[in-house]
Amino acid sequence: MTPRIADADAAIIAPAATPVERIRNFCIIAHIDHGKSTLADRMLQLTGVVDERAMRAQYLDRMDIERERGITVKSQAVRMPWGVTDESGRTEAYALNMIDTPGHVDFTYEVSRSLAACEGAILLVDAAQGIEAQTLANLYLAMENDLTIIPVLNKIDLPGADPDKYAAEIGSLVGVDPDDVLRVSGKTGVGVPELLDHVVRTIPAPTGDPDAPCRAMIFDSVYDTYRGVVTYVRVIDGRLSPRERIAMMSTLAQHDLLEIGVISPEPIPTQGLGIGEVGYLITGVKDVRQSKVGDTVTTARTGATEALSGYSDPKPMVFSGLFPIDGSDYPALRDALDKLKLNDAALNYEPETSTALGFGFRVGFLGLLHLEIIRERLEREFDLDLISTAPSVVYDLTMEDGTEIEVLNPSDFPEGKVREIREPVTRATILVPSEYIGTVMELCQSKRGNLRGMDYLSEDRVELRYTLPLAEIVFDFFDQLKSRTKGYASLDYDVEGQQAADLVKVDMLLQGEAVDAFSAIVHRDKAYNYGVEMAGKLKNLIPRQQFEVPIQAAIGSRIIARENIRAMRKDVLSKCYGGDISRKRKLLEKQKEGKKRMKNIGSVEVPQEAFIAALSSDDSAAKDGKKK
């Protein structure tokens, strides 16, 4: 692929010299697997910022976990030069700041921050699958930010592509003529040059006051072991120059600006950043709390007095406990979470203690995939071995005396009479082929959902709108939705308040003692099933003791399920070769008394492997467990 760039490459070598009217800031929004990263690869090649030898698939996906799963977890900003030839035949150099965003609902906060740093968005839709629920959600976010929307159909080279059908669908949503929907192939590069030309023509240049005190918005940060905190900013007003002293307006901390530059796609130091430009700052600071996403950067002298509006803090949807298997790793886990918090502003955590698991953290996530990614990053990047407890949501309780209590963890569930329990509910949007309407409705009803409405987007695609409890979504709803619709359904949801529900706390008792890690808050109708399932898991996972161990599931003082782990018994009759039966009975009675005494003073040790297997969402570990 031959790069088409301007003669002087001015956009990279001296970005400070690029006039503001020649800058275009845009992001790519799409559903998972609709080709965002592949399209970004073609743009990098076409603009010449990555040569053929260094090029690799998913170039902007820097983490191994992103490459392995084929998904984007972190937004990545990159600056590209692009030459556009005018009517007189003269080529003018433009600087394109492009942000590749994640597509999964759990990473919507990454998308919202990216949208705030742009003037336009490319709405990318797979020409073989059509628009998905998450794409709709991101489209509405972009419209709320008053961004210029460029609708694009990708993968037009696929045999199953139907561009005309889906162009009409997108046109009706965005309000454009179907013929105006651009058609590209991120794999072959067809239509990508025309798309970049269209970006230059339709997306407006950034606006700002060059003479005002400097104000730059922090939209992302990363931690570098050698250089400290690397802060990514979008300059709104004024100008930032190297060796200048800067101030963070929320923390009032001041630092010397050691290096300033652009990402193209590797860091390139420059002589400064002006209005509308996107780049990075390095101050050498090692304290990760000094660089807060959404903060405003200004100059220490003659700085701005009014901060930018920033971002609304993300609300955690799912809570799970993270505990190190080795208790001595607790300080390392705390430092690792501090560094990941810098890289992922949606992460929330606070210290927690468990009787069974020791010291750890109660961590708030935006969803189950977010939980899975964070745990895997902690284990890979920081070499930690962790146990995560079953995910739960926040419940609000009103006691009989009128006291209001917030419960983040089943172990915090209070003793005494509860007047009302309220759980978070969501407005869920499901897009599905029309032949699967019945099976999706059946699934939603089994998850305590209420149908709010249904619309046909086309003759074979339906939008279902449901009110669903968040607790039902965070466990296995998405997996079941995909399996029942052969992968064709897509889901998006927003928390919209609370509703009263008949919920109970189920405790798991070993030898009569409650194990807090296995407790759960579930709907009363599902409490029996949970108790039976967890008791069966633990029976397979906990090694046999010298005495019988009862495993019980209880709601308050009422036992709802029970399993027994049989005692290991020595064959005391092996030395009896015949003789009177009374001799055998005497030996058996003696053994029975010993077991009874042992049961009274014995305690059950639950191995770490049992905790990991019982608390994992996958049942296979428990089913394969064998008694020792």
Model description:
By secondary structure, this protein is of the alpha+beta class. The chain folds into five domains: 10-202, P-loop containing nucleotide triphosphate hydrolases (Rossmann fold, 3-Layer(aba) Sandwich), CATH 3.40.50.300; 215-299, Elongation Factor Tu (Ef-tu), domain 3, CATH 2.40.30.10; 318-391, Elongation Factor G (Translational Gtpase), domain 3 (Alpha-Beta Plaits, 2-Layer Sandwich), CATH 3.30.70; 396-501, Alpha-Beta Plaits (2-Layer Sandwich), CATH 3.30.70; 504-623, Alpha-Beta Plaits, CATH 3.30.70. Helices cover 27% and strands 31% of the residues. The protein contains 15 helices and 29 strands. It has an eight-stranded antiparallel beta sheet with strand order 10-9-14-7-8-13-11-12. The longest helix has 21 residues, at 581-601. The radius of gyration is 29 Å and the shape is globular. Mean pLDDT is 78; it is low at 6-16 and 617-628. This is Elongation factor 4. GO terms for molecular function: GTP binding; GTPase activity; ribosome binding; translation elongation factor activity. Belongs to the GTP-binding elongation factor family. LepA subfamily. GTP binds at residues 33-38, 154-157. Its EC number is 3.6.5.n1.
